[in-house]
Design goal:
The complex is a heterodimer of chains A (158) and B (289). Chain A is α+β, with helices and mostly antiparallel strands and 158 residues long. Chain A has helices at residues 26-33, 89-96, 106-119, 125-131, 142-156; strands at residues 4-11, 14-21, 52-55, 58-61, 74-76. Classes of the chains: A alpha+beta (158), B alpha+beta (289).
Chain lengths: 158, 289
Amino acid sequence: MIPTYPIELTVNGRRRRLGVAAHHSLLDVLRDDLELTGTKECCLVGECGACTVRLDGRIVDSCLVLAVEADASDVTTIEGLTPEGRPGALQEAFLDRGAVQCGFCIPGQVVAADDLLRRIPHPTPAEVQEGLAGNLCRCGCYEQITDAVLAAAEVMDR
Amino acid sequence: MRPFQYARPATLAEAVALLEAYGPEARLLAGGTDLVVRLRDGTARPSVVIDVKRIAELRPAIRQVGGHLVISAGTVMTDVAEDEQVRRHFPALVEAAEVVGSVQIRNRATLAGNVCNASPAADTAPPLLVYGAEAVACGTAGTRRIGLDEFFVRSGETTLRQGEMLTAIELPLPARRMGAAHLRRTRRRGHDLASVTLCCGVDEGGVTRLAYGSVGPRPVLVVDESGTLADPAAAAEAKAAIFERMFASASPSPRSMRASPEYRLAMLRVLGARALATAIARLAGRERP
């Protein structure tokens, strides 16, 4: 019998209460228990960034966080960045610049780019590359992704 | 991942009691950027994982006590790199903390975890050695301080005893003005492990401290007290001879996929000379970190 641990956390503004096994990652719980499948599972070693979410105001690889560690935390996933169900300025910029090819890495890229623009509203190209260094794109769209973030910074002006 | 139990002690005494009760069956969890990978691939198979992040005594994250800056075990790289006190007194540690992994990793990985993991390539190890850091270890027998040079044994192995946990890294506030620089060599810029990671510090008394990693089973600290390295006017041959003695402990593995031993040894000399020049310039106030 595998014990479960009660956790209570806020996901995209909604309070969620559930029981989790200690060996289930935050990524597992977001996708399998909460059915938030925008967050992607890929390398599972913290190198690709496909599972990036914001945890208490900071982005993390959700594959490296145990769900039980996220107890009493505030989590924002890619779904939480589109509260009206329509793409925002950042996502529009990704589409406009052709940064979205196969699309698999894009939720993680967008969550990381959103975090970067919160910290640095007007980044240089080097700051964009550094801010997104933890997000791999196997379609190789790094130039388009960098362009998209720079273009979004222009129109968003937080 | 294989199932395990999870414990979240609220106090240090509770954490130490759990370590005592479970012995080698327990693993401490701080940031998890190494441990969760190992839990998943099965190379770590604890029956209980003890999360240290909500231990009351590990707050605040960074504080000054007497002549020391104390960085608690739960403190993540992002906080180390952003802290005003660390930036003022230990800029080379900031440089190292800023290049560990990615933003996502730095938001989670702790300084203490980087040290306890004892990876030969740990980027924060060289500056911590140069700045004379100590590890604070707490167990049922009490608390002891271990100089980092006596802490590292080999990859994954430290002198921390069974039942002890590292609660903080303590850095003595420099008694003499020091210029220091951290440099590393990687295959790609951003999010890669170092092929060579190195820190050089020069103080106003003419002492040069050099520490390097990823070129042997553990990070190495060497000190030149002759004043030759710190002297910008000293002959190049004299400096080269000292560097050769300092780098004699480097023994890079021929099995590593990141870089060949020949390349690492060559880059060790290049980075050593560059870091020394930068450290001297910073001590003289000619360059800011």
